[in-house]
Amino acid sequence: SFQIVRNMRLAQCLLLNSFLLSDSVLPSDRAQKLLNVFTIVNFPNSACNSTLDDAYGTCYTASECAALGGSSSGSCASGFGVCCSFTGSCGGSTTLNNTYFTSTSSDSSPCKFTVCKSSDDICQIKLNFDTFSIDDPDTTTGTPDYIPKTQCLLSQFTAESKGSNSANTICGTNTGYHMYLEAADNCNTLEFTWTSTTTKTFKIHIMQIPCDAEWKAPTGCLQYFTGSTGTVYSYNYQAKTSHIASQNYLNCIRTEEGYCSISYSSSDFSVSAPGSAALTGASCTEDYVMIPQGAASTTTISAYSRYCGVFLNPTTTSTVAAAVLTKHRPFTIGVVFDAVEQDDEAGTKGFAIAYTQSTSC
Predict the structure, then answer these.
(1) Which helix (DSSP H) or strand (DSSP E) does residue 291 occupy?
(2) Distance of alpha carbon 321 from alpha carbon 271, whole angstroms
């Protein structure tokens, strides 16, 4: 019966207790026996896959997760820990890795979120835009004295980066894109501001990157790509409306082992310039992308670094797209978009540039 089982368990506990406390058991033996009964499990607070909305979390004990204000969503560390998810909203802050900054129905402008280092050895902050949809850049035609086209007038997002002369500012649709920031000793501020009444939705995964992490981006890279192939997009390219004014940043591509050159191609390249052709070099003065020493082949001596117009092509005035090759390393695509957009500038959509690394130099 239940009472008999209960009495047996009580007797076992009393016997164990008397044995451990008896004078015949040496203190060292007593400590060892206690450790055998109560095993202490330690595990690192590493990243884990949460069961909550396909999000990432950090592995903690259940009590630690609750104390930190997180949500337990799945197990980790062979079941000894829980995958703890952290979410913040306007006016919040975090010192924890794998935190999500998300929009709510009660958000108001300005909407600020502060990211502080989780430890002294954090060098970078990576923002993954799981969802990012705010007002597009302006597309209206202006006057000689006022040209608002491509500017983020109704909504904007800014992210402060250590050592940067100004905050990185974007708007529009940027779901699936990312942004690297240099971690500041006095925290990094993320901020949305707006004047419109349209719905703003965002879910930003915030990752803190240690200084010795192999996947840390080179200093000065706003976007960082790995792999021998991939595609680099300008911010707001998804909206298919216009690129964003006042941009000056680097997209960096890790040189994979054994590769020494890279080829860039685009079937959708629209970087503002008068006319309807590809332009290179000195013909690109206002908005352009930078591909250092780009050319039709890696053996071409006469090479350009600036590319603009409505086609990506190493040949000026060409009316078709063609690959731009370079063996200049590190592999980078610089983006320079000025603050205004003239009415005679034909292309304003931005770009999707595919890259393929090669072992042929």
Answers:
(1) strand 287-294
(2) 13
State the Cα–Cα distance between residues 12 and 272, nearest whole angstrom.
Answer: 83
Rounded Cα distance, 163 and 41, in Å: 41
How much of the chain exceeds pLDDT 70, in percent? 85
Peptide bond into 330 cis (omega under 30): yes
| pLDDT tens digits along 227-262 | 999 999 999 999 988 899 999 999 999 999 999 999
* Cα 233 from Cα 321, distance rounded (Å): 17
Say whether 64 sits in a helix, a strand or coil.
helix
- The residue ranges of the chain whose pLDDT is under 70 are 1-41, 141-146, 165-166, 343-347
Token reading at 318: 């060409």
- What Å distances lie between residue 303 and 28, 157, 222, 313, CA to CA? 76, 36, 25, 12
Starting from the edge strand earliest in sequence, which strands make up the sheet with 324-326, in order?
229-233, 350-358, 261-270, 324-326
Q: What was the pLDDT predicted at 241?
A: 85
